[in-house]
Amino acid sequence: MSTFKQHSILPGFNLALGFTLLYLSLIVLIPLSAAFIRTTELTWEEFWFAVTTPRVLASYRLTFGAAFAAALVNAVFGLLVAWVLVRYRFPGKKLIDALVDLPFALPTAVAGIALTALYAGNGWIGQYLEPLGIKVAFTPIGVFVALTFIGLPFVVRTVQPVLEDIESELEEAAAMLGANRLQTFLRIIFPTIFPALMTGFALAFARAIGEYGSVIFIAGNMPMVSEITPLLIITKLEQYDYAGATALAVVMLVISFILLLVINLLQWWGRRRSALA
Predict the structure, then answer these.
(1) Which domains does the chain have, with CATH numbers?
(2) What's the confidence (pLDDT) of residue 165?
(3) Which of 10, 86, 229, 233 could be cross-linked to 59 through a Cys-Cys bond (beta carbons 3.0 to 4.6 Å apart)?
(4) Measuring CA to CA, which residue among 32, 104, 75, 29 is closest to residue 263?
């Protein structure tokens, strides 16, 4: 018969676990349960109609599609930014390192207004893009740009500490054994940072799904074109359709949970593969 024993600096495991479960219940489980309970006011037919109208389905495609694309782009370029900040010394490095955190501190409404001013037809960047046939503001591309902006720090700050902890001796040993730079990166560095990269991707994706403030300014919020699901939820709340709003929230919650579960499984697989290697 095995017994469960957990060694810790802090005593009182049972008490600490109780407080942990209580805190998570009050902050996470009970509010989420309330959303599911509120949807019971609807019959199954009413629920299905509320969450599958063409306008709602279009908002799902934009919300999850743009969030996934933005997180994917941030995974690539966030890794590049983290690599530059860790591996190189150059003038202004501290300033760039501080700018990475700017989307964290900047109010989302301010970010939305700033992006709209930049990418509008008469904006600093938009005035050069529109003659090329590229319209960013008030289109799905604007949603993608806003979500990319707010998600970058999650990837950079997750990958950066792992890159800093990689010992240079491993790369030197690989070079001495005849590996080129690409082989060293793919076989030595990437397996080490992959779990952290997946964590940053998951955080950026989750943040993008629920983003509202920065998106509504640059999206234009045109139904069936550039309208996101969080805006539909707010619209239903303003119309006092609480059951309909919670129905949409439940669908987003379930889809988000499934996608994050898949990402976490990939992250676990990456850690396990790195350990076995």
Answers:
(1) 44-276 (1.10.3720.10)
(2) 86
(3) 229
(4) 75
